Amino acid sequence: MVMREQDSLNETAISAVTVGQMRIKRIKQGSVWTKIETCKLTTVTAPSGYGKTTMLQEWAAQTHLDVGWVSLEEEDIQRVAFWKKIILHMPGLPEQDRKHLLDIIQSASYSPTHFIATWCACLREHQVTGALVIDDFHLMINSNELYEMTTLLEEMPNTFHIIVSGHVFPGLSFKRLLRQHQVLQITKRDLIFTEEEIESYIRNHLHKEPTDTAIQNIMQQTQGWAAGLQLIHMYEQFQEDYSELQFSNVLVARQLIQEIVYSLHENERNYLLSTSILNEMHVRLCDYIAGTRRGRVVMRRLREQGLLIEHQEEPGWFTYNKHLRTYLKEMLEMQNMDVNELYNRASVWHENEQMLLTAIRYAWKAGDYPRVNQLLIKAAPCLLQEGRIDQLQEWINRLPRKYIYQMELGIIYGWVECLRYQPDLAQRHAHMIEEQLLRRELQFSEEEEKRHFADLYTLKSFISLLEDDVKSTMDYASKALVYSKNSSRYFSHSFDYNRHDATILHSPLGGGGDLRSVQRVYEGLAHTVTNESVFSGYYHLSLAELAYEWGMAAKAKSHLEKALAVADLFGLPGLLVPAYILKARHELEQQGDAQSAKATLHGLKDMLTRSNASADWFKKAEAARIRIAIYQGDTKRIHNWLSLFHMQEPPIEQKTLFEYITLVWAYSAIGEVETTQKYIKKLMPLVKFGNRINAEIELHIIQATLLYATDKQQAILSLKDGLRLSTEHKYLRIYWRGGESMRDLLQELLSMDAVAKKQRKYIEQILSYWSEETDDQKLQNRLTSRELQLVYHLQLGKRNNEIAQELDLSLGTVKVYFHRIYEKLGVKNRKQAKELAAGLDFSDIL
Predict the structure, then answer these.
(1) Helix intervals (H) in 142-222
(2) Domain annotation for the chain: domains and CATH numbers
(3) What is the arithmetic mean of pLDDT over 675-689?
(4) What values do phi and psi take at 90, rounded to 5?
(5) End-to-end Cα distance, the chain
(6) Of the candidates 279, 577, 534, 500, which has an alpha carbon nearest to the alpha carbon of residue 383?
(7) pTM to 2 decimals?
(8) How do strand 41-45 and strand 183-186 relate by DSSP bridges?
(9) Euclidean distance between CA atoms 670 and 686, whole angstroms
(10) pLDDT digits over 114-167, tens only?
């Protein structure tokens, strides 16, 4: 049987309250429980043992609403774990929206306002009706999450209901909901057993004729306490006479449970006590901890006696009644048993079953720091790959500091600092580890030493990438490859090297541009992109940039959406900034929507603020906003930015290229020819030395368009230099941004006899952007005759099966055709395609 490493789902609600092995139906018509569906929030508050959970299970079984159920544990009180559990169990949400909410909550750029607003919008859009029960809500003590829960309750539609159950809720404020009569409060007095229910219990479950004396006796002893009644039922299996029992306080109840436990066989008693440390039990796990091979027999007997509850969703997994487990753990502490050893055995078993996160939790409970350290090293690659940085950082910070300065955990801690937007701290930590390795004081074998050096330089190359330090990135990536040609536990060196190489070759920030090389690199790496990782983010970002430069709008948009999802998930400035700048460029140049582009870059600055990113990334985001001002001809904003830029002018180096090329564009836009030429002259040696092809082409284009009016001969020379660099890589959009001046220059150059045949075709390809065809004509030229036929029938309102019959095609072929048509038209569905193709000429196919 495959066992999943995750919290098991809550038991399915049953049709009646179960007490021990008895079932008592308690919810009646007209009771307070029938009012739950009229309120947004229901609170069920009472001490332990009053049957809050079992009553809610009975209500869930009777209501017509779709009910989700969450039982909180101690590990669920952190923000991501808490909201993730809520989202996964909330009924009625479409899977796409559920995934989107999970992406938001796990994003490093998390915004509570955006999260709650998106969630409530989903509930309203899909008219979600249902209820969510959150059991043991009193464990939630974090004020931020309680405030967010309050906001969600206030903003969500009335069609959804949340029921919270627990001892008390001191941090949950619902004054506003009370004023709106949207809160139902169920308390201890609504949960106690009535005399009528006790009478039914005596008759149906104790199989005795109820007398007033017996009813009053049990009522006096239990005070209507559900756990007391449950204990009587359990005690009935071991003793004949229960009339002397007293339930006036918890201590007596504990004594009763002790009596029940000690009445069991010694093997069963030891089994109970040893396994009470477990949140979830499996027969093999319990056998391992208790040191017995009779677990199946013992567990069957315990289940028959009502002491075990089997999970409905995961057969073979059990839990104790939570009150019984509490008392068992207290009894365990009074025994002469090594509790830490039991926790350690649980940790070892879960490690052997590859359930590393659960193994780490039990190792923490055992207080075994060396074991926690060992397990963290083992689990770190998976946690880093999945972006679970918060969890990893929390565990590492709880360890004594000496472990952070050890080699393997030290490298992992460097990755955590790096991925938490602290490259300076990560750099210092990596430098300290490098000194330890270079001093060779740690007595590593040659193989271990190579592995550590490879891991270290992979980390340092990534830190340099975040700092936009191109030279250091390539140097460290090359060093990593010297020590290991194959793979790392954290990131594959060969993939990392190629990712760094491709990112630097082509980047809107660094001015790279060997497009063909980038394409070749990523064609070879395509099979490695299997999930949402940092690498997959750079992969999709680079492919989006390539497609965008080559004018393939639909493909660019598809890759960009995937890159943005990963950028939001990991929140790394080195990925966030270029992804959002590309998104703004798409909105500005492709859609002509300057307002959306501004909003995108404004949102980027907000995310950088929340992530405590360095000032360098803010400068890049602001430079991207100035490019919008240049596009709009907003000279006032350009002048303001130029003044601020010169007040804090950074040195001219590889990582400031984006800002300085923006500076050149800005001076060119306001007609400052001499200043523009001065900066082009300063930047040209730097971009040539760094092989920054994109930046060099851009500078030649700016110079050509700037000189066209005054020195046509020099303008054509600059254009030729740009074409010489770009012909091999098929740059297109970079020329389109030059506007009509670039079009005229290209046409004039084309009229000359000196242009080579290969370059002539390339120039014609660039000029096709300015052809006099209408948008409809351009659109029509993209479609084949057969595709036009399908679009024509689509305009007539025919369905796929009708089109297939009309054109003598299979239904599958029609679907493939439409998928291709949508991609060519840059649309997502039939409605959009129909609207976009309304002006096409179908005369040739009729």
Answers:
(1) 143-155, 175-179, 195-204, 212-222
(2) 27-190 (3.40.50.300), 195-261 (no CATH), 264-356 (1.10.10.10), 404-484 (no CATH), 506-625 (1.25.40.10), 633-771 (1.25.40.10), 775-845 (1.10.10.10)
(3) 88
(4) -75, 125
(5) 62
(6) 534
(7) 0.52
(8) parallel
(9) 25
(10) 788 888 888 888 888 889 998 888 888 777 778 888 888 888 888 888 998 888
